[in-house]
Amino acid sequence: MAKNVAVLVVNPVNGMGLFKYLEAFTESGIPFKTFAVAETTMVKTNSGVNLITDDLVTNLKKWTDEFDAVVFACGNAMPVFAQNVDKPYNQDMLTVLGLFGAKNKLIVGHCVSALMFDIAGIATGKRVALHPFVRQAVKSAIATDELTVVDGNFYTAQNENAIEMMLPQLLEALKA
Length: 176
Hints:
The protein has helices at residues 15-28, 57-60, 77-83, 88-102, 113-119, 163-175; strands spanning 5-10, 32-37, 42-44, 50-52, 55-56, 69-73, 106-110, 127-129, 142-144, 148-151, 154-157. The strands form 3 sheets. The protein has a 7-stranded mixed β-sheet, with helices on both faces. It has 6 helices and 11 strands. Helix 1 packs parallel to helix 6 (163-175).
């Protein structure tokens, strides 16, 4: 039976990256729910398309045991996070990532996701792919220049264009 996936959707989200995950999950029969890292379920893509997620990250804190994996769908994550670090939804996102990490569940993301995993304290010693602009900010993970990296339960891609190279391994793990 396929694993259940929680998809964290920042506001604004990189629609191209988000839709690559969602399309692959849908086509492969992988069940997922989307959770807005925001005050409402209404989010936008970087290009301005409105999306409505299934729920809020705040509510995911109560349901993490129902999911086997978490995907961090990147967007303008770092600038928006930095401006809103004290907002409850960002603190809830870090808590959720911590809960998934503590239970050794699959952790997935692209672009600056690995930096968010590092900030959440769950990527210590893990090799990660991430956007070159944030490479120096990583403290506990091992930042690489690779386009994709799979290190144990961590699946990371440098950017949305590299997601497709990571998807076959990720889908195999989600179907197992």
